[in-house]
Amino acid sequence: MKVLFQIRPDYLQNPAGDTVQIVSTGRALKAIGVDVAISTDPNVLLVDFDLVHIFNLTRIKESYMYFLNAQKQKKRVVVSPIYWNPDAFLHRKEAKPQDLASWKFTQPMRARVVRECDLLLPNSHLEIENLSGDFPNHAPFEVIPNGFPDSFIGIGPEALRQRFPTLPQDFVLCVARISPRKNQHELAKACKELDLPLVLAGPVNDRHYFNLSRSFSNVIYLGTLHGEILASAYAAAKIHALPSWFETPGLSSLEAAACGTVVLSTDQGSPREYFKDMAVYVRPLENETLQRGLEQALNASPTPLMHHVRANYPWSKVARSSLEAYTSMV
After folding, report:
1. Distance between CA atoms of 293 and 164, rounded to whole angstroms?
2. For position 280, which CATH number holds?
3. Do 157 and 61 belong to one domain?
4. Domains in the chain: how many in total?
5. Is the pTM of this model over 0.90?
6. CB environment 49-69: b (16+ within 10 A), e (fewer)
7. Pairing mode, if any, of strands 51-55 and 35-39?
8. Which domain holds residue 295?
């Protein structure tokens, strides 16, 4: 089987969760014999491909063009929507009115894609419920969860400690792009109140917000980490905190859990479907719950969630489920 993946053109220059999902899914599918290619060309010829798999309907402009091209060439289209209605985030007091207007203006494009594609692959049942609320008339779906790299199992904190020898022994880690949606500023404030060092890792999407988040004396920024050093950072952390405005469910939360770290997660989006009662949850609209959540996480055990995530969400297992979904429609 030959599958073409399509995603926004800057997926490598501006990495985010969709970047991790497309790269990790492709690598795991190749390992089980699927011929996977990635293209950001909206006019790519599709004659050699069995189907087109499009990632991310939040940033819809490019995805819509990929969809129209596949439809024109009569190719089956699979869509990983990575979708959650951002209404609360777009109505926060710091939000720009034009962002909400742009979201509403582009909803008809999302509606057409989810209605006319051949198969939706949401990352959770909660995601398809949220999508159904906005687009009741949608294509058939199969839930394919997100995952973590199988290679992360067994990596300890030594590599991180060797590269960054001055890091404190106990710290809170947040691996995410630095942006208002990830809520690092409020996390930094809560950690400061509790005298907890906060280590941030990830690309900077918003320089002003990054400077605000780094203005606290307890914050350390390590840049963007990958591979073994990223897994080692998870293993070294006392808590991994991702108090975003919403997540589906947060790839870094999955990765941290697999590495044996206590997970503090937003309660908005699909994290509860993945982590059950084995994570600590906070509500981003209520900043006082973040400090209480951190205090609770300091005394929580990572072991139950680690075993649960390792058993259910390695990328190798996700790839087999993806291939079954492809096979059902070709």
Report:
1. 27
2. 3.40.50.2000
3. no
4. 2
5. yes
6. bbbbbbbbbbbbebbbbbbbb
7. unpaired
8. 150-312
